[in-house]
Design a protein that fits this description.
This is HpcH/HpaI aldolase/citrate lyase domain-containing protein. By secondary structure, the protein is of the alpha/beta class. The protein has helices at residues 11-27, 49-65, 80-90, 115-124; strands at residues 33-36, 71-74, 94-97, 104-106, 109-111, 131-134. It has a single domain, classed as Phosphoenolpyruvate-binding domains (TIM Barrel, Alpha-Beta Barrel). The chain starts with 10 loop residues before the first helix and ends in a 6-residue tail after the last strand.
Length: 140
Amino acid sequence: LAGTPRSSLPLTQIVDQACREAETYKDAGVDGLIIENMHDLPYTVGPGPEITAAMTVISAAVKRTCPGLPLGVQILCAANQQAIAVALAAGLDFIRAEGFVFSHVADEGIINACAGNLLRYRKQIGAENIQIFADIKKKH
């Protein structure tokens, strides 16, 4: 996405590609999809507002493309509150939360457990309908 070291595509092209890929998966019969900014290497703890804004635009477009498919979002690295906000704004069903329970050292630095703050934030913004699929410990 914009602002990352390897960024080369305009947001409109990323949106179009994400929607095409989502339709392909939907047509293949998947049960749900998750939208991630996985190519934003190297990741940082607490990506900027430009990433959250772009993920909202992409997620809303994918939701319009595949309205009946369960959709979620993860914003790397461990931007779990931002993911809840994106899911709420875009009408998504779930997020994947990295570092939910255990703190750990990752390539991005120290990732602190977020369960308490994330659950309180979800309640505060009225997003209790957004499910949280959580890493108990980092997956890799």
